[in-house]
Design goal:
This protein folds into 5 domains: 121 residues, HPT domain (Four Helix Bundle (Hemerythrin (Met), subunit A)); 81 residues; 183 residues, Histidine kinase-like ATPase, C-terminal domain (Heat Shock Protein 90); 134 residues, CheA-289, Domain 4 (OB fold (Dihydrolipoamide Acetyltransferase, E2P), Beta Barrel), CATH 2.40.50.180; 118 residues, Response regulator (Rossmann fold), CATH 3.40.50.2300. The protein contains 22 helices and 23 strands. A 6-stranded mixed sheet has the order 10-14-15-13-12-11. Strand 12 and strand 13 form a beta hairpin. Helix 6 runs antiparallel to helix 7 and helix 10 packs antiparallel against helix 15. 31% of the residues are buried.
């Protein structure tokens, strides 16, 4: 009877992926290790294992590629060739190709090995071993001549594992969250019952002593309440254990998302021509798998931003008196029931002057509104959609679509916070604060008159009660003095559009201090009720436009409680000084006028139609000379130009415009089919603000780039 090999396929794929991860990590370590012997042995073993297992399952393509990689590693191991960083590139490509082939490993398929890569690897490793020759074995230490007898010991029990679908685990954790939330409501009802029992006891003392039936009934009620109280106390213990055990089942170490970033940093550093020392600390810190799955993209965006904008090129670092090798450190730790992730670089820091100039140029704010912002609020501007401080926009960088995605994913998707710390010339640190899980959220319930709302604990700095006289007017706002800082305070009910709280006659005023990034703000509330761990449901579709609320939960008596969106509340409070003043938006009603330059009539008309459909005025020129003559007569808000044109090309036009004092700050976008790096660098040198490729051209990319530059 033939053996059905397909049932072993899933296990092979899983094990092969683990070995691919070891190959990738090992190659990264090999580039930095002083003693490479053991690292090469480990790499050889992983490639050899993949090759052997693939052969058993008749996966010829996987086996062939793994064998080719094994040949190179064997040549390294036997010192027939020497390791160089360039040698790791084809091996990395081999790992990538193996992972791609493993994705294709399903019953009935036979993934083919990349022929060119296999030939390249075989050439690096020398001639392949003769057919049938066994793979070189690692030396085995000789056994002792006369081993001493040892008493037999029972074998240690082997850990048992059960493979279950992740969706089943998610369902279990969701059910656990509902139980914890429901138990909290039950506990609050018991507190009400105890209050009734105490009231009944006082009534019993005043009742007719001859009314024995009533006395016995109330005594039985008191006894029952005591038993329920003891049962609730035991349930508290069991529910807490259930919660901890269940949540732990879905926890994964951050190394699962941190370690693959080593390869990302290596490749991006090479792409940018930079030498980076990338350090990872705290990879053993565990987080909910649901959070880890959504954390990869924001971290890649942040790392790309650090390499592109933060860390300088070696020559620039040398001139600044820094080591040529830049430093990038990713770390994680537990703090206050949350996980703190930090990404720190030792680069040039964020240029706030350039950031302010970019905001003014794109008309996101006017100069007066920008001047009122605190330093922390200015740094938070990098999270605005479409804003970038990149000196030039290309098809890959500078579109301003990175950091706004990071904030959206961290704050809205993961219910966390993100703050920035930067020092000019010394570097920038991004601090992420994340909840441990997304199943249940710790919330503080607060009362606003007759209403109850919830504030996420992760956004709360502290809670306090102060005498009314400590709240003073300062520059038109109510403030309190806290830890040598003046903090603004706002009536939370008024911010939510509810009747203002009546504080007359109050002995103490309850204040909840929250933070959004580095900004702190105090919310005045009627009362701080309790801390609860509750399931938060998304806002119904018909209420999605309520920006100040990011979810709902259920309280006592099936009361629906709004979970407040702290970052949006802080943003709303910035404009609470003068409620009659609308938030600052785009400054001028005038439609910006754009000059489109291209020798192709069809291209000019396409670009003109796109821009006019998005609200811009457009004029056209048929080449650089025509455009230069038009710019002498009129000041345009932006110039969009091709490169290869008769009479005057786009590079020369841009250079001539920059020589004109009126056009030194007017954005210029180059749209061309010239895709070589040296062409892009020339565009940067002559002063272009954006360099877009026609082969990657689409309507949205053009409009987004124009909006990024002039609003």
């Amino acid at each position: 009877m033939a053996l059905d090999l397909s049932k072993f396929l899933a296990r092979f794929v899983e094990e092969a992926r683990d070995h691919c991860a070891k190959l990738s990590d090992g190659l990264l370590n090999l580039e930095q290790a002083a003693d490479q012997t053991e690292a090469i042995h480990a790499l050889f073993r992983s490639a050899h294992t993949i090759k052997g297992s693939a052969r058993m399952l008749k996966l010829t393509g996987v086996s062939e590629l793994a064998h080719s990689m094994e040949d190179v590693l064997d040549a390294l191991r036997s010192e027939r060739i020497a390791f160089t960083p360039a040698l790791s590139d084809p091996l990395f490509r081999g790992v990538d190709a193996l992972l791609l082939m493993l994705d294709q490993c399903v019953p009935g398929t036979q993934p083919a090995a990349p022929e060119a890569l296999c030939l390249e690897l075989k050439a690096l490793g020398g001639a392949p071993a003769p057919a049938g020759e066994a793979a070189p074995a690692l030396p085995v230490p000789p056994a002792p001549a006369a081993p001493m007898p040892v008493p037999a010991e029972p074998a240690a029990p082997r850990a048992e594992y059960l493979r279950i679908r992740a969706t089943k685990l998610d369902d279990l954790i969701q059910l656990m969250g509902e139980m914890v939330s429901e138990h909290g409501r039950f506990r609050r009802e018991i507190l009400r019952l105890r209050e009734l029992d105490r009231s009944a006891g006082q009534w019993t003392g005043a009742a007719n002593p001859k009314d024995l039936a009533h006395r016995e009934t109330l005594a039985a009620l008191h006894e029952s309440v005591g038993m329920v109280k003891d049962a609730v106390r035991m349930q508290d213990h069991l529910i807490a254990e259930l919660q901890d055990t269940t949540l732990t089942m879905r926890m994964l170490p951050l190394s699962t998302v941190f370690d693959p970033l080593r390869r990302t940093v290596r490749d991006l550093a090479r792409e940018h021509g930079k030498d980076i020392d990338f350090q990872i600390d705290g990879g053993e810190t565990e987080l909910d798998r649901k959070i880890i799955e959504q954390l990869g993209d924001p971290l890649v965006h942040m790392i790309r931003n650090a390499l592109d904008h933060g860390l300088e090129a070696p020559e620039e670092r040398r001139q600044a008196g820094k080591p040529e090798r830049g430093s990038l450190r990713l770390s994680a730790c537990y703090e206050g029931g949350c996980v703190i992730i930090e990404l720190r670089d030792d680069g040039r820091g964020i240029d706030t002057a350039r950031l302010r100039a970019k905001v003014l140029a794109t008309r996101i704010m006017d100069a007066e509104a920008l001047e009122r912002l605190s330093p922390a609020e200015v740094l938070n501007l990098i999270f605005l959609p479409g804003l970038s401080t990149s000196p030039v926009i290309t098809d890959l960088y500078g579109r301003g679509v990175g950091m706004d995605v990071v904030r959206k994913n961290i704050v809205e998707g993961l219910k966390g916070t993100i703050t920035i710390d930067t020092q000019p010339g010394a570097g920038t640190t991004f601090h992420l604060r994340l909840p441990l899980n997304l199943a249940i959220f710790p919330l503080f319930l607060v009362r606003l008159g007759p209403r109850t709302c919830a504030i996420p604990t992760i956004s709360i700095v502290e809670m306090l009660a102060v005498p009314p006289e400590e709240i003073v007017e300062f520059v038109g706002r109510r403030t309190i003095r806290r830890q040598e800082r003046t903090l603004p305070v706002e009536d939370l009910a008024s911010l939510l559009g509810l009747p203002p709280l009546d504080l007359s006659g109050a002995g103490k005023v309850n204040i909840v201090i929250v933070h959004d990034g580095a900004d702190q703000l105090g919310f005045i509330v009627s009362d701080i009720l309790s801390r609860e761990e509750l399931v938060v449901k998304p806002v119904p579709l018909h209420l999605k436009n309520l920006k100040l609320v990011n979810g709902v939960t259920v309280g006592t008596g099936n009361q629906v409680i709004n979970v407040l969106d702290v970052p949006e509340l802080v943003k709303a409070a910035r404009h609470a000084v003068d409620p009659g003043q609308a938030p600052v938006g785009r400054a001028a009603p005038r439609r910006p006028c754009i000059l489109v330059v291209d020798d192709s009539l069809n291209t000019r008309e396409i670009e003109k139609d796109i821009l006019e459909a998005n609200g811009y005025q457009v004029q056209t020129a048929e080449d650089g000379q025509d455009a230069l003559e038009q710019t002498r007569e009129k000041l345009y808000d932006l110039v969009l130009t091709d490169v290869e044109m008769p009479r005057m090309d786009g590079f020369t036009l841009t250079e001539r415009l920059r020589a004109d004092e009126r056009y030194q700050t007017v954005p210029v976008i180059i749209v061309t089919s010239m895709a070589k790096p040296e062409d892009k660098m020339r565009g940067v040198r002559v002063g272009a603000d954006a360099y877009l490729l026609k082969n990657a051209f689409d309507q949205s990319s053009l409009v987004d780039t124009v909006r990024n530059l002039i609003g």
